[in-house]
Design a protein that fits this description.
This protein is an all-alpha fold and 397 residues long. The protein is built from 19 helices and no strands. Helix 6 crosses helix 9, helix 9 packs antiparallel against helix 10 and helix 11 packs parallel to helix 13. It is globular and about 70 Å long.
């Protein structure tokens, strides 16, 4: 995809060419056998398919000529796995290309998640807390703007990277978020997405080593992903943070994340990803649930609201307040932000309310909140957890 997009600068042509190359592989490889270099085969066929697609558009003869020249001059083998090709690698280079500043920030993030990172429209909608139909329209408008405006997607020059960085950071963060806690499906965690986000974050750290928000994002992902092995049980069931076996947390990742966070903070340019990382560090440095500094976490969320004034951040602050000052105090905050239309589509709001209501012995209200979460079709492990909690609450009435 990156190779064809660099050649054509046309997102639609690149997508179509890569899809045609994959179809050709499905048709030919079972009969003829796998090529010695499958990636190089796919890239070469996709580049030729792109030229064919451009040739069909007679009105674009200039583009065809340019593409033919590029193809003839390229003669370059496809980049091998792990080789850098563009800003921080082929994948990262494509993310930078698609995060074009001509698009609004949310539009470029959503388009990149769909076209580069492979997230479905439903998954992207979950990340933005909007209906899937709304996100589908946003993606269509973004693609139409690229086509109508004649925007050519090219690797940005080094001086242009800062104008795209906020979108690239957000893309990386949302890919990890979908991997860390899948929005739907049979599994709670999608490890391949967590790993992909970590690769992007490490590539960014190599590309922009002095940028504290880049360092903060990498620290956040490491500190959070360090808990991956303990977040599910032997059968894939959900294990709450307070019940996790902390000996299964990856201490090497935690140490690296804490070191990177200190490096970022020393730069004296705070930002949201550094604050998110500091919150994650409060959990990773606690020996057990009882020693977690929830007051510090609540204060950090309060500071984070200055950078991200969103109902999600306020809802997370409510949980920290509940843990430090009691469930009634947290529930007041949750109920105050719960009327926001975005949060009505967020299962975590209803799960948090249910937990606080149960702690206050308001069992019927807690069951209603759990059922509201079920209606939003969470992952299978979350559904099983919710069903168990409803049974426990009903049995105790």
């Amino acid at each position: 995809m990156a190779s064809v997009l660099r050649m054509t600068g046309d997102l639609a042509v690149a997508e179509d060419a890569v899809q045609e190359a994959c179809l050709a592989a499905l048709a030919q490889w079972p009969a003829r056998g796998w090529p010695d270099q499958p990636r190089a085969w796919l890239t070469g066929v996709a580049r030729h398919k792109a030229v064919d697609l451009i040739r069909r558009e007679a009105a674009r003869s200039r583009k065809e000529a340019a593409a033919m020249r590029d193809l003839a001059a390229a003669g370059e083998p496809a980049p091998g796995p792990g080789e850098l090709a563009g800003p921080g690698g082929d994948e990262l280079g494509l993310v930078f290309m698609c995060c074009h500043p001509a698009l609004a920030l949310e539009a470029r993030v959503a388009l990149t998640l769909r076209c580069v990172c492979g997230l479905s429209t439903a998954q992207i909608a979950a990340g933005f807390l909007v209906p899937e139909a709304t996100m589908a329209r946003r993606l269509s408008r973004a693609k139409a703007k690229i086509a109508d405006s004649g925007i050519r997607l090219r690797q940005p020059a080094p001086d242009d990277l800062p104008s795209r960085l906020a979108a690239v950071l957000r893309v990386t963060y949302l890919v990890f978020t979908e991997g860390h806690k899948a929005s739907r499906g049979p599994d709670l965690v999608r490890g391949e997405l967590c790993d992909a986000a970590l690769r992007l974050a490490r590539g960014l750290a190599v590309l922009l080593p002095g940028e504290p928000e880049v360092t903060g994002l990498l620290a956040l992902l490491l500190l959070t992903d360090a808990r991956r092995a303990a977040r599910t049980g032997p059968g894939g069931e959900l294990v709450l943070l307070e019940d996790q076996d902390r000996s299964r947390w990856d201490q090497a990742m935690i140490s690296e994340g804490e070191r990177l966070l200190l490096t970022a903070l020393r730069a004296g340019r705070p930002g949201p990803y550094q604050l998110h990382a500091a919150i994650a560090a409060c959990h990773s440095t606690s020996q057990d649930p009882a020693s977690t500094d929830w007051r510090e976490i609540a204060a950090l969320y309060g500071e984070l609201i200055r950078y991200e004034p969103s109902p999600v951040v306020e809802a997370n602050r409510a949980i920290a307040v509940a843990m430090s000052e009691g469930p009634a105090a947290g529930l007041v905050i949750l109920d105050a932000v719960g009327h926001h239309p975005q949060l009505s589509r967020w299962p975590q709001l209803h799960l948090a309310r249910a937990d606080l209501l149960a702690r206050l012995d308001r069992r019927a209200d807690a069951v209603a909140a759990y059922r509201a979460a079920l209606e939003l079709e969470p992952t299978a492990p979350e559904r099983a957890f919710i069903a168990r909690r409803i049974r426990e609450l009903c049995a105790g009435q």
